[in-house]
Write a structure and sequence with these properties.
The protein is an alpha+beta fold. It has three domains: about 45-240, no CATH class; about 245-350, no CATH class; about 385-495, Immunoglobulin-like. It contains 16 helices and 16 strands. The chain has helices at about 25-30, 45-65, 95-120, 120-125, 130-145, 145-155, 160-185, 190-200, 205-225, 225-235, 235-240, 255-260, 285-290, 310-320, 335-345, 355-380, and strands at about 70, 75, 75-80, 85, 90, 250-255, 330, 385-390, 395-400, 405-415, 425-430, 435-440, 445, 450-460, 470-480, 485-495.
């Protein structure tokens, strides 16, 4: 910096050197944001009741389903070793992968449909991250207290009280996380066998790894990361805007009614707020205090909002205390708020907008897929047959007794009994005159949910005036004890050039 010298005509240049951060350091500092711990406040309300109802519903299913039995085996079991998936009365094999595909497509379309109608319902009420975060926060509140008690505890120096509370909280978190991991693995290994092996300290490495891994993921995501998972790890928060439109039901703050916000005594009559230049919002901050992601909904819709409606319950409680109408923060649509701001009148949501083209298309496609999936399951035959030709020997001429000139083709018959009871089957073949099925005259018995591979020889007697080449044949596999279990598979019989 240049400064004039007041003592003479000569001027002296004084240079002050200040440390300057490099551009790379400035860029890194501007992009990095230190996480501020969020202390959500406990509350009660209509939407909080719905969230806890879904917590109970989803966790009763998750924790209880592996313990239920069906026909002497676990009701829901994905036996990867045996390559069989047991789901209630159905047994699915790798060949039934199409049903998993249909299930995933229906789930995705259902998510699109619900998002287009009512925003992030899945995130706010049924997502595992939301559910387990709610459970972990409940444990935290029971051990450490509500919002201000937890903030005070974290700010206090380490002492016996703090150490006891923190240790108890993390012990309960870890116990629940490990039990969650055990239940998860119980869907792939029979949970009764798994628990017996655990009590006898005979768990295998596969089960041990996944119990610890899933437990660690639950403990880390629900106990430590919480809103960071929703904001930075979950891709749904990023592409949800592609499924939103101005008629999507989202959580909104009615700024026309709430502004200008400001504190005021409870004795101020609601009818006198306009003359005082005040809106209904008293700027209490309860909507921010109860938010699990720590956002201020009064700043508009944000991608961090998971649609849990905690801010609605919190704001409604304050409105009740102030004797103001509820609904300052509520579920609404952009079009409804725009209509209220420009035309006045009611801000009610026109339910006819639920039946807009996007929703109708999603509903039609989803309904068609669900009906097709249910019909396929209802009409599914619990018998599958695959006919595989022997690649080593295409066709050969053999002798049967003293007679030479018989033509033989060799096949492998893969029969799968997908029923929950044993069955006996008979095999016959047709397609060429005189064609005989050798060494397979007896019945084939298959146990419940089992498969069997059987070699089959088809022989054609000599003297048949049939042109060389490929000729179609048909295998019929029919259950002896159930006449409706019949499967027909086509193949070919090769006649060589002699």
């Amino acid at each position: 910096m240049n400064t004039p010298n007041s003592g003479g005509t000569a001027q002296q240049r004084v240079i002050r050197i200040e440390p300057v951060s490099s551009p790379a350091e400035e860029l890194e500092e501007s992009l990095y944001e230190v996480r501020k711990k969020i202390y959500p406040r406990a509350l009660r309300g209509w939407f909080a009741g719905w969230r806890w109802a879904l917590v109970w519903f989803t966790q009763l299913i998750f924790y209880g389903l592996p313990w239920l039995q069906w026909n002497g085996r676990q009701m829901v079991l994905f036996d990867l070793g045996a390559r069989k998936f047991y789901v209630f009365g159905f047994v699915f094999w790798p060949q039934d992968f199409i049903y998993l595909t249909l299930l995933l497509i229906c789930s995705a379309l259902g998510l699109f449909l619900f998002t287009a109608i009512a925003g992030r319902l899945w995130c706010g009420y049924a997502c595992p991250q939301t559910v387990y975060t709610e459970i972990f926060m409940w444990i935290e509140r029971k051990v450490e207290g509500d919002r201000y008690a937890r903030m005070k505890l974290d700010a206090s120096p380490l002492n016996a009280n703090k150490l006891t509370r923190k240790t108890s909280k993390h012990f309960l978190w870890i116990a629940l996380a490990l039990f969650t991991g055990l239940t998860f693995v119980g869907y792939f290994t029979p949970i009764r066998d798994l628990l017996r092996e655990l009590t006898q300290f005979r768990l295998g490495p596969w089960e041990s790894f996944w119990i610890l891994f899933y437990g660690f993921a639950t403990y880390g995501n629900a106990g430590w990361m919480r809103e960071q998972v929703c904001k930075y790890m979950c891709p749904y928060a990023r592409f949800q805007s592609a499924m939103f439109d101005r008629d999507t039901l989202v959580i909104t703050y009615d700024s026309a009614r709430g502004e200008q916000r400001g504190s005021r005594p409870k004795s101020v009559d609601h009818a006198n707020l306009a003359s005082m230049g005040l809106g209904d919002c008293i700027d209490c901050g309860i909507c921010v205090q109860v938010c699990p992601t720590g956002i201020d909904i009064r700043q508009g819709l944000q991608y961090e909002c998971i649609g849990c409606a905690a801010c609605i319950d919190g704001c409604n409680q304050i409105m009740d205390k102030m004797n103001y109408p509820r609904g300052l923060i509520r579920y609404s649509t952009e079009n409804a708020l725009t209509q209220l701001a420009t035309q006045g009148g009611s801000a009610s949501i026109p339910w006819r907008r639920v039946f807009r083209p996007r929703v109708l298309v999603y509903t039609a496609i989803l309904s068609a897929l669900v009906i097709a999936t249910l019909a396929a399951l209802a009409l599914r035959t619990p018998l599958k047959v695959n006919v595989i030709r022997d690649r080593g020997v295409m066709a050969r001429v053999i002798s049967v007794g003293d007679e030479y000139g018989w033509i033989e083709n060799v096949y492998r018959l893969q029969i799968m009994n997908q029923d929950e009871v044993a069955h006996r089957y008979q095999v016959r073949v047709e397609g060429l005159p005189g064609l005989q099925l050798e060494h397979l005259n007896e019945e084939i018995k298959l146990d419940a949910a089992s498969s069997r591979s059987i070699p089959v020889e088809l022989e054609l007697p000599p003297g048949q005036e049939i042109a060389p080449g490929s000729h179609p044949v048909t295998f019929h596999v029919q259950s002896v004890d159930r006449s409706d279990l019949v499967v027909t598979e086509r193949s070919v019989f090769l006649i060589p050039h002699l």
